[in-house]
Amino acid sequence: MSPAAGSSRWCPTPEQLMILEEMYKTGVRTPNASQIQHITAQLSLYGKIECKNVFYWFQNHKARDRQKLRRKLNKQLQLQQQQEVVHYNQQSHHFLDSFGSLPASSTQQLPFYNSAALNCSSGGSWRCIRTSNNLEGA
Amino acid sequence: MSPAAGSSRWCPTPEQLMILEEMYKTGVRTPNASQIQHITAQLSLYGKIECKNVFYWFQNHKARDRQKLRRKLNKQLQLQQQQEVVHYNQQSHHFLDSFGSLPASSTQQLPFYNSAALNCSSGGSWRCIRTSNNLEGA
DNA sequence: GCAAATTAATGATTTATTCAAG
DNA sequence: CTTGAATAAATCATTAATTTGC
């Protein structure tokens, strides 16, 4: 659409986006009509917006959230399987076991992420080919 | 730690920092294990570094970025709330209150909602009263 | 100018939350 | 309802900036 005549579809301002995400994070998923009206009123202080935009935003966000998670889970399952094959010639099985080599804080349980990745050092013999940070394969 | 024995924590070289920020600027946020390995390999050309350093750097950078934005937004919200007029005459008050009355998500949601709500425009005379989502207490 | 003292940044850990599978 | 996996939020801890008194 012609630039001077306003866009054909709603484009959230950063403030609007943050507020929406904040609401989403605190548990709002499918606001009812009344809630949508309140939210729209609040967001309208930061830019042009209509109730249907709010309604659709929550619909889409919820859906895409789930989608993203599903894909991520699949990816990581595949990755983990690959890596297990790659450097499994020694040590215990299950990559989560190899945690003993992180900074020895006595009461430490596995805190974060894939320890196989965290424990890789720059001196090590990494041989990763093909980066192509093309996530979202599946 | 003893002076000759190396520092207790990673300190990024200017080159490493530049590369990391460049990646962040182009959209890298939570690299997976494989990506972290690639990045670490690349950065190790400029100084000692481990995968966990890369992992932490993105975690922290992303979090503090959000934090900064959130603080800015809160200032604006507080300003807005000072000027806000309490409306109070009809229907539910805090939009979060009416959670109890949300349509049970068990089955199908109303697919296209209340047309009155969808058609409401931001030009209307809606007024929100304080939601007091204490975002980021400052 | 220069360190000791103080404050700001930021690396590293811990804790809480989230989603979905069982 | 419980639990596994991932990660965002909150927090701790150390290094860098800076302020300060000499």
UniProtKB/TrEMBL annotation, chains A, B:
What's a single GO BP term from this record? Answer: plant organ development
- Is Transferase among this UniProt entry's keywords? no
State the source organism's domain of life: Eukaryota
- Compartment(s) where it occurs, according to its Swiss-Prot or TrEMBL record: Nucleus
Instruction: Point out the DNA-binding stretch(es).
Output: 15-69
Molecular function terms, GO-annotated: DNA binding; DNA-binding transcription factor activity
State the InterPro entries in the record: HD, Homeodomain-like_sf, WUSCHEL-like
A cellular component term from Gene Ontology for this protein is: nucleus
Q: Which UniProt keywords apply?
A: Developmental protein, DNA-binding, Homeobox, Nucleus, Transcription, Transcription regulation
Locate the Homeobox domain: which residues? 13-68
- Pfam families from the UniProt entry: Homeodomain
SUPFAM superfamilies registered for this protein in UniProt? Homeodomain-like (SSF46689)
User: Where does it mainly reside?
Assistant: nucleus
Q: Which family does it belong to?
A: Belongs to the WUS homeobox family.
| PANTHER family in the record | WUSCHEL-RELATED HOMEOBOX 1-RELATED (PTHR45940), WUSCHEL-RELATED HOMEOBOX 3 (PTHR45940:SF42)
Q: What is this protein called?
A: WUSCHEL-related homeobox like
